[in-house]
Design a protein that fits this description.
16 strands; Glycosyltransferase; about 50% helix; globular; mainly alpha; three-stranded antiparallel beta sheet; homodimer; 2 domains
């Protein structure tokens, strides 16, 4: 535990850096290159310079961009007020509502015109649909979008609690497993649907936290992606898989929830899993956070395990500045600074805007595009937005988000 | 066209190198580490030193190892004669026949005991099942295995000609596509089921060659993995995808078929696609064959595109020594030599046997294991075996496989 005070001027300068990156480098890339004014929605497959290399519309990214544009609108404008962000959000929200749903399911990808091309038997398209409409409802002052978000969330909850509804084949002799992604995204969705002050879905949130605890393994000082639903560790590549960026994201979702429910023990756990996962995932040789690891030290079977992806770094930026805000422990601020240095120098593209998404282990750009089937207007601007807010709160500690002073800081 | 004669001593030395690698370094790794004497079949997830890190039995690799062990037996022994290779082949063949089938389908993966854990809606498990039983039938002198191979092949053919039978969802507005893997693997299966002299399935072979021609694009000097079934090029990452190793493998399958049917034009085409694909896929910066490329120069969306995998190099070794044998053009021999130098120095592990499978772009080992969900006892020993045979034929040109002297060599 260390409490050297961080110089106020350092925080002021960082805040300015994050604000400029968000509003001058990242958001303009999407506002300029992504809108499809002819068919609605966004082009999300955009090359380094913003030119599109595919017209497929991936629904995760349509939903996430609606959320992001709505969130920025809600930060800067009143509900329903004209703004370029609300205009962008509407373009995507209307496209989604018109084309992406098929009853209780949401497609994974659509043609440019909005015809379905792929349906996954997973819950994530549905989740990003919920997230999009929940925030868009606040931006546009449209209660019908709130209602639709809550209705779709009810289907997501049903799928999460009984995955057999998704129609994936299962075998009686294969014990059911829990995937970390499901409780963590649901916990985040609850926060999104509730908005700043809501307290609905409390039982579901408790279920999510309990599920997440199955994945948190103090005996390993690690978070495992997949465990048995009875909490047993599975001795296979799947059961030993660690995704540090994912665990760090789970950590800050849990920390945000702990603040809402004022649970200091939960906040401590959240910060612990952030710290474990970063320490396990940081590549001492080349810098950056590795994508996948095996808890027992075997080579992960995922070919891309050693790559450095933008989103784990985005999640870690948010997580460590929140951990610092929560505890005042400057070790977290140092990790935040190290991550800022790595991320801005390796991922950010000052020439054409936005961040590269995929570096090889050595830190060289492996994919030059800015948008693809799994990268869009989301992780980078969300991280910049959230970090900038926390930095602002650190400068004005009596405003905005509060840390849980109930935490016994000596125990962290 | 160049016809500098390759020194006989060079070929003698290379043949010895390949033979030693096969019989002293590669096969012993599998014979020592893979057999499961308790439940049958093979452990195929083996770490660098041969220790297993997962007991899942991946059916592609069970089938391929049965094929390989049977093939070696058939080279060295009489049908049904006792040999360690036949013993190994039997261990896998009996396990497959007992556990891997469910009617017309073959599972993708099984537990150690043989219970199913995954069924793919693709045809490849079925293909490797056919390949395994066809060669095993010759090794064991078991006609029932031949019959079963042919019966399963009939299901594969039905799936290949009408993919809707696999139960994958499709949309009326999405035009059907052709995947290069399907006709090329079928063409190879026909050769495997027919054995050395058979001529069955001639119509199917013609269908395969026609389908492969949809993928061969002289206007690009490339082979595309996915095209419309009417032969149109699809302008998307999927439609622009080039997998040089796969195209090179298709090339030598086609060259082997051209020899059987004595079609010189087809042989020329086969060698052309080998050469195109190698030239497009060779990484001038770091050496080795890249895994995926985009025909228009965009970054492939596959994260692992820049990696160097063992199997494209194995396929290229076979393809170029066959191209040299066919044409006498020493440019092919030089490429074969360059590939030999890269592959033996980067992939081979003299300490523990077998080859590493996955290098990063720089040529560093990215996955240390020797066997995994997609790597087993197949590509390395098959390539070593086939190359050693061709080198032997080059030393005794009147024995064994014949080249098509009808080729007008000036046109290549």
């Amino acid at each position: 535990m260390s409490h050297t005070k961080i110089d106020r001027a350092v925080i002021v300068k960082l805040r300015e850096k994050y604000r400029a990156e968000l509003y001058d480098n990242v958001l303009p890339f999407w506002i300029k290159n992504s809108p499809d004014r002819e068919f609605g929605g966004y082009f999300n497959c955009l090359d380094r310079d913003g030119r599109r290399y595919d017209t497929t519309k991936h629904v995760w990214l349509q939903g996430r961009q609606v959320w992001m544009m709505s969130r920025i609108h809600n930060e800067l404008h009143r509900p329903g007020e004209n703004s370029p962000y609300l205009d962008m959000a509407r373009l995507g929200a209307e496209f989604l509502r018109r084309h992406a749903r098929d009853g209780r399911c949401v497609y994974f990808s659509l043609t440019r015109e909005g015809k379905p091309t792929h349906l996954q038997r997973k819950i994530f398209s549905e989740c990003f649909y919920v997230m999009a409409l929940a925030e868009y409802a606040r931006a546009s002052d449209d209660d019908s979008a709130t209602a639709e978000a809550r209705e779709m969330l009810s289907h997501v909850i049903a799928y999460a609690k009984d995955p057999s509804l998704l129609g994936r084949p299962s075998y009686a002799h294969v014990p059911p497993t829990s995937n970390l992604a499901v409780p963590m995204i649901l916990l985040n969705l609850i926060q999104e649907v509730n908005g700043a002050d809501g307290t609905d879905y409390a039982d579901l949130a408790a279920w999510c936290v309990n599920r997440m605890h199955l994945h948190i393994r103090p005996e390993l000082s690690l978070v495992l992606e997949t465990v048995g639903v009875d909490g047993n560790v599975i001795d296979s590549p799947e059961g030993r898989l660690v995704n540090p960026g994912h665990a760090i994201e789970a950590g800050w979702f849990m920390l945000a929830h702990a603040r809402r429910v004022r649970d200091a023990a939960m906040a401590r756990t959240a910060i612990k899993i952030i710290d474990w996962s970063y320490d396990f995932g940081w590549d001492e040789k080349h810098g950056g956070i590795l994508y996948f690891l095996d808890s027992a030290g075997y080579s992960p079977v995922q070919l891309e395990w050693s790559m450095k992806l933008w989103w784990p770094h985005c999640e870690a930026l948010v997580a460590f500045i929140m951990a610092y805000q929560e505890t005042g422990d400057d070790r977290y601020f140092r990790k935040f600074e190290r991550l800022t240095e790595y991320s801005f120098s390796k991922f950010s593209d000052p020439e054409f805007g936005e961040w590269f998404g995929y570096l090889d282990r050595h830190g060289e750009v492996n994919q030059r595009f800015k948008g693809g089937p799994y990268k869009g207007c989301f992780h980078v601007p969300r991280a910049l937005f959230l970090v900038e807010k926390v930095l602002g709160e650190l400068l004005a500690p009596n405003l905005g988000m509060q840390s849980l002073d109930v935490i016994d800081k000596s125990q962290i």
